[in-house]
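A protein record pairs a chain with a discrete description of its three-dimensional fold. The following entry can be read in just this way:
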Amino acid sequence: MGATDLERAPEPTDRTMPVIDLERVSKVYRSGSLQVKAVDDVTLGIRDGEYVAITGPSGSGKSTMMHILGCLDVATDGTYRLAGQDVGTMSEDELAAVRNQRVGFVFQQFNLLPSLPAWRNVELPLVYAGMPRAHRRERAIAALERVGLAGRVDHRPGELSGGQQQRVAVARALVGDPSLILADEPTGNLDTSSTADVLGLFDELHTAGRTVVVITHESDVAARAQRVIRMRDGRIVEDTGAAPGAYPAESAGETVRLAHSVPADAAATPASGLGWFLPRVGLADPAADAASGPAADDPRHPEGPR
């Protein structure tokens, strides 16, 4: 499967603008008198077409960061701009449209419906988006072909290996042609061979120009990325791709180590095209998009912040 198999997104409106732009973002969870700051005053920019790994020990805030980036959760403080638009000003319908149409999610637990064959699992985002039934199967099967599962489209999850189930999950993330792929511990339940296969898919997505952000605690998975961001206690403590001065002392609360392990001439691949977001995302089918909001039965939803 070549890189061109995964090329879909249009050209961006402005390649110099960060896709992801966090300015002093914090997330606080409260339960009675107890409060936990899962993300603590983070400032971060990710360019269009970058392949970024966010890593750190359990409880470092990396999964909460992913939920904020994917509009699955909202920041308590600070500003999050996605392709120039302030996420904090969006309505629930607009957030639902972003999650459903513009961001592809891949989770550790696969989140596949066991009673449905692979193609029906893959088509679910298209159902929520209101796509006509006649087109959904064709798009779902094409997405499965892209991840090497052309011969497994009618197999249920229980008839597939762990690696194949994660490929179905990746196909589901791709079926709507998103420009941003967010993966939370995508190899956590996979053996070595299946891990290599899935990471190969992410390499192809990056080569094709999509922005890929992988949340992981595994150093070998993080090493595949173009840029590695390390978190501890809700803060960024190391960033191998940040420019000098990217983390002001008053924002980071401590000196952030800028390893600069990326070669000086390294650059993002041809941009994935976040022009879809400028101006503010519109709703092609308000009723369908509203229904596709943060519903409990949405199989793409995570189990909750970690």
